[in-house]
Amino acid sequence: MKKLLTSRRLVVLVVVVMVTVGVITFSSRTRTSQEKPALPMRIASDVSTWVSEVVTSPVKAVGNTYNAMTQMFDVYEENERLNKKVNQLAATQVQLQNEQHENKALKKQLKIDKTLTDYSIVNAAVIARSPSNWQSQLIINRGSNAGLKKSMSVMGAGGMIGRISEVDTTSAKVELLSDNSQTADRFAIRVTNKNNQTVDGIVAKFDQTKNQIVMSKITSKTEVKPGDPVTTSGLGGITPSGLYVGKVNKVVESDYGLTRTIYIDPAVDYNNIPVVSVAIPES
């Protein structure tokens, strides 16, 4: 039985080989002749083409899928790299803006140095400011080791902002001119009009909604107009005179015309104070 099966296999193999050789022979003759191929040849050719397409189509599909997946992963990796670069550029831009802002503030501080000829200047950076007393005080990174003492005047980028209220070795607290607390020491200020006439008073309060300094209960009849400069008066001996505070915004008469209230636009934005200068009197 086994021999019979072996003989059949051998016969099938011989037939397949003969058919294959015949197809190749007739194909070569057909290519060299102008005669139309015989029907069996056309059938064999069609079957061969169909088998080839059946075999190669899945292979091509797998290859195309692999290429598509490879391209997708490449695009994903490139997208990740681009996102990292965008984040780095954004961080660099923020840092640059902060440095530019600080640079402008320092340049303004240099102009202040030239106006305080009788004082030596110690520049400091603001290192802390509590939201609960934002308009009352701030902390700077200079202290007694830099020569700072209590009640020394502190200037911002454009004008006076307050004075030293507490000093440690390496830091100090600054009481702001905008402090509305009951325990705050009121600043003595002076308005000078175009005729060089002056009106003295104290800071009554700071209007946070309008961002204005309020100088109230003025009994002087001296003419004051919007735009007149406001400086420290030096009265009381705590704060030196002549430190720029701001300019008059408007003057409001009281109901009976006995007193006036002067609203002043400060020279400094109290919500944005990155650096300060402390005026130390020269001995």
Per-chain topology:
Layout: H1 2-32, H2 39-115, E1 119-128, E2 137-140, E3 153-155, E4 160-167, E5 172-176, E6 188-192, E7 198-202, E8 205-207, E9 212-218, E10 229-232, E11 244-253, E12 260-266, E13 275-281
Pfam families: MreC (PF04085)
Coiled coil: 79-109
GO cellular component, one term: plasma membrane
Short summary:
The chain is α+β, with helices and mostly antiparallel strands and 283 residues long. The protein contains 2 helices and 13 strands, in the order ααβββββββββββββ.
Structure, described:
It holds the Pfam family MreC. Residues 79-109 form a coiled coil. Involved in formation and maintenance of cell shape. The protein has helices spanning 2-32, 39-115, and strands at residues 119-128, 137-140, 153-155, 160-167, 172-176, 188-192, 198-202, 205-207, 212-218, 229-232, 244-253, 260-266, 275-281. With 283 residues, it is of the alpha+beta class. It folds into four domains: 1-34; 38-115; 119-180 and 274-281, Thrombin, subunit H, CATH 2.40.10.340; 188-266, Rod shape-determining protein MreC, domain 2 (Thrombin, subunit H, Beta Barrel).
